C-alpha cells in the first residue's frame, strides 16, 4: 500500500500571510513615495518664494497672481500633507492591524504546522498498523482457505465413511441374521436331541430298574432257593438266623 502525501491544509493560511506581507510592503512603499513627492514639491515652492523680486512694475501684478496661485498651491499641498498624514496614520493603524493579523496568522500557522506534524506521525503509525493488519488479514485469509479446503475434504471423507458404514451395517445385519437363524436352527435341533436323549434316558432307566428287579429276584432264588418270594428257610436262631434275616431284609429292599 503506497502512502499518500498529506494534503496541505495550511496552504490558505500561508497564502494569507504572504498576501498580508505584500500589502504591508506596498503600503509602506506608497507612503514613502507620497511623502517624498510632497517634500520635493514643498522644497521647490520654497525655492521659488526665495527668488528676488522683479524690478519692473508692469510685472508686479503678474507676479502677485503667480504668488497667489503658488499660495493656493501650497495650501492645497498642505491640505494634501494633512490628508497624507491622516492617511499615514490610517495606514499606520492598518499596518499595525496587519502586523497583528500577521503575527496571529503566523502563530496559527505554527499551531497548524505542529498539528499537521502530529497528524502525519499519527498517520504514519496508523499506516504501519494498517499494513500489519493487512498482512495478518492476508495470513488469516490463507489459513481460512486452507481450513475450508481441509474441511471440505473431511466432509467428503466422512460422507464416504458414512456410505461405507451403511454398507457395512447392511452386510453385518444380513450376516448376523443368517447366523441368528443358523443358531436358532441349531438350538432347535439341540433341544430336540436333548428331548430325545431324555426320553432315551427314561427308557433306559425303566429298563435298568426292570433288570435290577429281575436280577435281585434271580439272586434271591439262587441264594435261598424255594418259592418265588425267596424268603423260605431264613427264620432260624443264632448266627445263621441273624444272617438269614439280614439277607431277607436286603432281598426285600431289592424287590421293593
TrEMBL record:
Residues 247-256 have a biased composition (Basic residues). Keywords: Coiled coil. Residues 226-238 have a biased composition (Acidic residues). It comes from the Eukaryota. This is Uncharacterized protein. Residues 1-17 have a biased composition (Polar residues). Residues 1-21, 226-256 are annotated as: Disordered. Residues 180-214 form a coiled coil.
